[in-house]
């Protein structure tokens, strides 16, 4: 039996999972879970990365007690990074992508030297304020002392790998989220990096998923009684891990990796960086096997999460399933929001912001918790329809089904809405897609699983996949017309 240890970090929590593989069957078990709480200090939002590393060591210790493991893999969210100085230590605490420092990114000197379309022609990445390019360009202009003290920039999973092994490497899929890679060459765009005022010497060479990052440091082995396990460079962007186990053999599946963000896209062999693709603002991120994840970043269950946090602060605590039930009892199509509007980017009182948005746009205002959640979910479903239409126009083919992966697959309400709004059947699951992708890449690297196609077949055979058939869409067609007028 092969046993691997997977760490999966989301925007609000993390966990350590043991994957066991024998006889063609995969079993996944959680051994450690912890919160991932950003910290706001002096109006800057930071990741508590030292606490996260403490939790990694807790997970390793529990895995040792559980029977051990052969390798370790870490996946996280994209774009964020740590700065490592010449002494090997952090220059500063890593900043959260939802921090306000890049709100005015269009005023950066970078845009005096190039244009958004020119950047897209090379990188193929959706223009979003918090992309790594904008964060580093901001530092180059506003806090140059930090970059002057920096020896290497490490993306979040690469940073955690470095803490474990002492090796500094940059994995391809996580680097591809930065807006600093040439999408076709799959390597750094050094011209763009120079125009942003970034010294290319602080960047590591790109390594592909499946390569060894390093071995656990001797002092960590001693502290935790751990084996000299290899730490693998998996597809370390969480969405790349999830997409690697879409349970189908279709060459170009349509998927939604549904969590804090909804990443909706398909899989291609080469990027599309045309002017029309730029106008649609689709992104070309790297995938396992040198594929391209052609997708759009859509604000996802972040809105539901922030609403729930606000209601908890007010003394009203609901589970997500309770909120779904309340939303299901409300009248449909009361009001809609543009889920990607700047109003909803930063943490805060999300129910109030949604009500203010609806009032400002001349719509009925959702009053109850159920009405607020229904507004979010219907707006998400309509955004999925809009995205699917644009994507199918760009890639030149259509899909009859959408695979919803991750935590959002647990919401029967949202899955059915997605089916009805798009006119496509939804196949929901696996809910643990990211962890399964992490584990499968470790097994592929170890020679236990042949390739991505076999990994997908194993997942399709062993995981529960629920089908939501689309129903009569006339009411959704009328809602979509209202939604398009709004956004």
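Sequence proposed for the structure above (487 residues):
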């Amino acid at each position: 039996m092969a046993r691997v240890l997977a760490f999966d970090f989301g925007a609000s929590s993390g966990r350590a999972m043991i994957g066991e593989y024998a006889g063609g069957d995969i079993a996944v078990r959680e051994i450690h879970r912890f919160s991932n709480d950003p910290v706001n200090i002096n109006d800057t939002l930071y990741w508590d990365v030292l606490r996260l590393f403490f939790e990694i060591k807790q997970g390793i210790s529990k895995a040792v007690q559980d029977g051990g493991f052969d390798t370790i893999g870490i996946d996280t969210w994209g774009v964020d990074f740590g700065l490592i100085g010449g002494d090997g230590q952090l220059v500063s605490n890593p900043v959260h992508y939802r921090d306000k420092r890049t709100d005015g990114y269009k005023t950066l000197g970078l845009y005096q030297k190039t244009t958004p379309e020119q950047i897209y022609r090379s990188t193929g990445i959706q223009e979003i304020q918090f992309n790594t390019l904008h964060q580093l360009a901001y530092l180059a202009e506003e806090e140059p002392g930090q970059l002057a003290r920096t020896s290497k920039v490490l993306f979040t999973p690469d940073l955690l790998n470095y803490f474990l092994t002492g090796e500094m490497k940059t994995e391809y899929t996580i680097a591809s989220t930065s807006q600093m890679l040439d999408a076709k060459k799959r390597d750094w765009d050094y011209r763009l990096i120079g125009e942003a005022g970034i010294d290319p010497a602080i960047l590591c060479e790109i390594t592909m998923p499946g390569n060894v990052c390093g071995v656990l440091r001797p002092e960590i082995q001693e502290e935790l009684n751990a084996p000299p396990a290899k730490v693998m460079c998996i597809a370390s962007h969480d969405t790349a891990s999830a997409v690697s186990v879409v349970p189908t053999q279709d060459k170009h599946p349509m998927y939604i990796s549904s969590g804090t963000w909804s990443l909706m896209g398909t899989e291609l062999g080469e990027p599309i960086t045309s002017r029309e693709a730029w106008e649609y603002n689709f992104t070309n991120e790297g995938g396992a096997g040198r594929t391209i994840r052609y997708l759009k970043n859509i604000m996802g269950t972040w809105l539901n999460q922030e609403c729930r946090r606000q209601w908890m602060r007010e003394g009203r605590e609901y589970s997500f399933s309770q909120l779904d039930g309340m939303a299901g009892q409300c009248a449909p199509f009361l009001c809609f929001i543009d889920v990607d509007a700047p109003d909803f980017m930063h943490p805060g009182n999300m129910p109030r912001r949604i009500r203010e948005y609806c009032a400002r746009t001349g719509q009925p205002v959702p009053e109850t918790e159920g009405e607020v959640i229904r507004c979010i979910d219907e707006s998400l479903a309509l955004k999925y329809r809009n995205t699917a239409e644009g994507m199918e126009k760009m890639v030149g083919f259509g899909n009859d089904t959408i695979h919803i992966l991750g935590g959002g697959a647990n919401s029967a309400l949202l899955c059915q809405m997605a089916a009805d709004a798009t006119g496509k059947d939804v196949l929901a699951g696996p809910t643990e897609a990211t962890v399964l992708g992490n584990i499968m890449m470790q097994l592929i690297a170890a020679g236990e699983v042949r390739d991505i196609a076999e990994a997908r077949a194993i997942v399709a055979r062993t995981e529960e996949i629920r089908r939501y058939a689309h129903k009569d869409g006339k009411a959704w067609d009328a809602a979509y017309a209202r939604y398009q007028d709004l956004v």
